[in-house]
Amino acid sequence: MTQLQNRIRAGGFIQSEANGYRSRDQVTIEGGTGGAGQVYAGTVLGKITASGKYVPWAHGAGDGSQNAAGILWDDVDATAADVLGAIVDTDCEVRKADLTFDATANDSQINTAIASLAALGIKVRS
Which of 17, 42, 80, 107 lies in disulfide reach of 8, CB 3.0 to 4.6 Å? Predict the structure, then answer.
């Protein structure tokens, strides 16, 4: 039997955002070998310093992706190659329960990511 999963819809994690599309940006999600793979809406992203591409936030990384830099707006599949994706990276409020953080991160590391998001103007609400 096929198992169904409920996932957040595009932008479903947002409580409020700035007028127009000021809260959003279009970025490159790193794909291919060693890339992001399938990434879902609400995933907290980090930005690789050398390439400027985004990947899921990885608290233990040393390439820049250890710093939370935005939240993925909608699902993307970066398994085979880089893809363009929309993110929110400023001036919005989001529900913490609807966000996906690095599964290996502890509460302290997640709180550090939330502080990084706050510095961007993204308020994470409980």
Answer: 42
